[in-house]
Structure formats: C-alpha cells, structure tokens
Amino acid sequence: MAIQPTKANPCSLPTNSETSTDSEKYLFYVIVLTDPTHKLTFKTVSQALPVSWLDIPHEENEWVELKMVQAIKLAVKTIAQEYVWHRMTASEEHQQESQPLEEKQE
C-alpha cells in the first residue's frame, strides 16, 4: 500500500487568466493498494483538508493531526473494503464457473 499526500484545488482547475494560491488548495492523500499475487490494484483519494491547516503552530495543531489521521484511516478502510469485497465476489464467481451445468440449472 502506498499513501501519497497531494495538494490540489478540488473545485476547478485554474485557467490561464486565474492564479491559484495555497489558500485555495486542499490536501488529499492518494492511496494505492496493490496485490501482485492476484493482479489487483485499487486507488482512492481521501477527504480534502485545507492546506492552510498546515500553517497552524505546532503547539496548537493537535486537532489538525487528528483530522489528518481520521482522513487517512477512512480512505484506507474504504480501499480495504473494496479489496475484500472484490476478492470475495471473485471467489464466488470462480466457484460458480467450476460447478457442473446440471447443478447450475437447479
């Protein structure tokens, strides 16, 4: 699993005439889960957090750390749930394919 922090403006991409400042940007975490054994890759993006939160002094930013951890946990739980669901349904599909035709018709 890879977790990569990324800054972006989730609302719209700036055009040539617009300039984007850090106050308009948000922090996302891009999460990629790869299972090379089963040739599976899952990707997701965490909830957006304002980049301006990173400027809060260290002594006052405990709540910022908690919010970031919560955003990462939620994204990881989401991608893990997708992975488990895919593995379970792929297993069920494989079992159905291997059943004899007579059993499928019943």
UniProtKB/TrEMBL annotation:
It holds the Pfam family DUF5427. InterPro entries: DUF5427 (IPR018814). Residues 1-20 are annotated as: Disordered. It comes from the Eukaryota. PANTHER family: MAINTENANCE OF TELOMERE CAPPING PROTEIN 1 (PTHR28265). This is Uncharacterized protein. It comes from Rhizophagus irregularis (strain DAOM 197198w).
